[in-house]
Design a protein that fits this description.
Blueprint lengths: L4 H24 L10 H15 L14 H39 L5 E3 L6 E3 H16 L2 H15 L9 H10 L2 H30 L5 H42 L4
Antiparallel strand pairs: 1-2
Length: 258
């Protein structure tokens, strides 16, 4: 069996274009983008996912891979994959911001550890929220849903057509403001309660300075914060689930997937 150059390039294109879109998604998607996961594993997952999806994808356009047009198409596919995973990464950043805010309100900002996703020091409370969000993300098969949406996007946004435009990019940028708005909204009940506790300690210390209220106020604040987290964690995860749903809805709109 002999293959010509054109046939080989066609077979290569049928693998390369989907691989660019899928592999770039694995670079930014939560859970799979952590630094603890080796890059070789992500590449293998991307190749396996691409090989599984190739039979269900439409025919690839006749575009020269090693030309200028092929370069622009590759950049377009990478942008689609990166944006899809980045939107969900924003949702996880909401939980991270809420955890940091609560930790600083409790006085536990010094208790930090390395975040495996970003490689920076974050409070342990924030890591607790991120781990809970990651488990919820895997429990609802969020990664499989994202792969399904990417597979459908090859029909709604075929390779070679116009992908993300300026309006789509501005939507993603403006949507990233939810990191602060929704993160503060999740942390507000705990922050408000701890603020009220600290105000009570301040009033008591002003009324009776000899009692040394702040000597016992620090451990009481920590215990109160832990109790509030234990009580409010189910509601926080429920709010995270709603934000995750909004993130998937935005990904579907950008990929033109209904």
């Amino acid at each position: 069996m002999n293959f010509g150059e054109d046939e080989l390039l066609q077979y290569l294109a049928s693998f390369v274009w989907p691989f660019f879109r899928i592999s770039s998604m694995f670079v930014t998607v939560p859970v799979f983008s952590v630094r603890a996961l080796p890059a070789k594993v992500r590449v293998m997952l991307s190749m396996l996912t691409t090989l599984v999806l190739i039979p269900t994808l439409p025919a690839m356009p006749d575009i020269e891979i090693f030309g200028y047009q092929g370069l622009m198409v590759a950049v377009q596919q990478v942008a689609l994959g990166l944006t899809s995973g980045f939107i969900l990464q924003i949702v996880f950043s909401i939980m991270l911001f809420a955890g940091q805010t609560i930790a600083y309100s409790m006085g536990l900002g010094f208790a930090s550890m390395v975040d495996p996703a970003t490689g920076v020091q974050v409070p342990v409370i924030a890591q607790l929220f991120v781990i809970g969000g990651s488990l919820l993300f895997l429990a609802v098969d969020g990664h499989l849903l994202l792969i399904e949406m990417l597979a459908q996007s090859f029909h709604t946004l075929p390779v070679g057509t116009i992908g993300l435009d300026k309006a789509d990019l501005w939507r993603v940028i403006s949507w990233s403001s939810l990191i602060f708005a929704d993160g503060l909204l999740l942390a507000m009940p705990v922050m408000a309660t701890l603020l009220f506790v600290n105000i009570c300690f301040g009033v008591a210390s002003k009324a009776a300075p000899q009692l040394q209220i702040f000597g016992v106020g620090f451990p009481i604040t920590i215990l109160m914060g832990m109790l509030l987290i234990w009580i409010g964690l189910p509601a926080m995860l429920e709010g995270f689930s709603e934000m995750l749903h909004q993130g998937f809805a935005l990904v579907g709109e950008l990929l033109r997937v209904s």
